[in-house]
Design brief:
By secondary structure, the chain is of the alpha/beta class. It is built from 12 helices and 11 strands. Helices cover 40% and strands 16% of the residues.
Length: 326
């Protein structure tokens, strides 16, 4: 069984820790642009943080590279292990290959094939399991029969610090930002970005973008605690789950001001909008932030949508661009 990389309680990173993470990832991740959304009739002053332009097409490379570089070399004797629907696994496999380490990724049977193919090209060993079994790994960190150092894709201090670097860049490029929308899967992105934003501007508002098929943050905010929801599968494979992770919930309480649930049709329309208006390829989770922002009514407040990734199966993208919702 894999050994967890860290076991101490999670906390929100401070400014110095975020700066250290920025230095660590400088050779792996790039500083992505923040551009205006040019769209007639758009209800607000919207900007796009294009994390889909990262190497391997996702913000996860920030988290993965920071996590693997934060560990002592003695941790790597049997390689690294993670549980990932694809984007974090790609980032970890890439960082591991650069450091001549083996990498194993436990993936759900719902993972997009394009992401699995990319992980395999990067040298990762793939173990496919049922979604329920994969979710159990995320909650328990138990990996029977798999050895190595387990790096959690969400609930890892170094992962949260790596994600926080996005928030630091947003405030440097748009200090007047008042609202940020971001997709929430496990909550590591919201925790990190929210920590960076609210650490410098406590009044900035952060909203979780969710879909009608899976809205665990909305349910947790309403109940005041993580609750199990009826998670349904869709073309959006990079966000949502059965529940908010217990260890992430205290962080989300301090960083997320609310959640916006978008219909699948609206998220598919956001994928089309990004492609047609800016030639930006976004996966479902990446476009969910735009769908949320466009649904929230007119506003002149500077608003940022984090386009978290662009790793979408070509067949799914083609159906969306033809006007369908997969």
């Amino acid at each position: 069984m894999a050994i967890p990389a860290h076991t101490e309680p999670l906390r929100l990173p401070d400014k110095s820790e975020i700066e250290e993470a920025r230095n660590r990832i400088s050779g792996f991740a790039v500083r992505t642009p923040l551009i205006p959304l040019y769209l007639n009739g758009a209800p607000s002053n919207i900007y796009l943080k294009l994390e889909n332009l990262q190497p391997l097409g996702s913000f996860k490379i920030r988290a993965a590279s920071n996590a693997i570089q934060s560990l002592p070399k003695s941790s790597f004797a049997k390689g690294v292990v993670t549980a990932s629907a694809g984007n974090f696994g790609q980032g970890l496999a890439h960082a591991a290959r650069l450091m001549n380490l083996s990498c194993t990724a436990i993936v759900p049977d719902t993972a997009a094939q394009t992401k699995i193919n990319s992980m395999e090209r990067l040298g990762a060993r793939i173990i496919r399991v049922k979604f329920e079994d994969w979710w159990h790994v995320l909650q328990s960190r138990e990996t029977p029969g798999v050895e190595g150092t387990f790096i959690h894709p969400v609930a890892e201090q170094a992962v949260i610090e790596g994600n926080a670097t996005i928030g630091a860049e947003i405030l440097e490029d748009l200090p007047e930002a008042q609202t940020v929308y971001l997709p929430v899967g496990g909550g590591g992105l919201a925790s990190g970005v929210g920590a960076a934003l609210k650490g410098q501007n406590p009044d900035i508002r952060v909203f979780a973008a969710e879909s009608e098929m899976s809205a665990p943050v909305s349910a947790a905010l309403e109940a005041g605690r993580p609750v199990r929801i009826d998670h349904k599968l869709s073309f959006i494979d990079g966000m949502g789950g059965q529940t908010v992770l217990e260890e992430i919930w205290p962080l989300l309480q301090h960083t997320v001001d609310g959640a916006v649930i978008s219909p699948l049709d609206d998220i598919a329309a956001a994928v089309r909008t990004l492609m047609e208006a800016h030639h930006v390829v976004a996966e479902g989770a990446g476009a969910a932030s735009v769908a949320a922002a466009l649904s929230n009514g007119p506003s002149d407040a500077p608003t940022v949508c984090i386009i978290s990734g662009g790793n979408i199966d070509l067949s799914v993208l083609c159906r969306i661009m033809q006007g369908h919702t997969p």
